Amino acid sequence: MQDGPISLLEGLATTRAIRRFRPDPIPDEDLASILWHASRAPSGSNRQPFRFLVLRDGPRARQARALLGEAFRAEWQAKRTADGYDRGSGVAPNTRKARMAAAMQQFVDRFEETPVVVLACHEPYRALTPFDGANVYPACQNLLLAARALGYGGVMTMWHVLVADRLREVLAIPADVFLAATIALGRPQGSHGPVRRRPLGEVVYEDGWGESARWAVDPPGTAFAGGPRRSG
Predict the structure, then answer these.
(1) CB-count burial class (<10 Å; 0-12, 13-18, 19+) for 94
(2) What is the pTM of this model?
């Protein structure tokens, strides 16, 4: 457990994707708190169509986690090849690219050992549209921030799509329920942020596309992904 509580802004600035977990289980009271805070998220017309299917150590959960592990390993292998993780700087073991590949490989190889897996779903109240992810993904971000606040970490992926039909069969998920995301949770091996991102001036425009916002300045000491790349 971390030494003390963190502020909301600190959580926003330091919560990163965690893919390497210690084997410690998440106690029921912490899991309930994480999901309660996830359920505080906004949704369209406040209909709250998000649903969370928690997979731990039940018999159906073990089957589902095995299916997900199979899918994640296949998807990562395809991505590893397509994105050239074993070429260029990825060949040197201590580069950022190689470290990322190593973390991903450990994540998929040990997926079935992940302490908690959550399937974030959307239970429809009308025909699904391309916009209905907006009813689920704010709750997913709340979930990850709540986990961070309690000393846990997680990562959200869509790699369940490869086995979505089989998951529905194993877990008795109705056909009209949208499987929006898979979130892996646990106590991190390592620590959270600060995260590295693009400079604020690269992602914020004012008064027109590509028009720089002179006030969009990063706080002192900000670390950047790949270094600052300001264009003007």
Answers:
(1) exposed
(2) 0.90
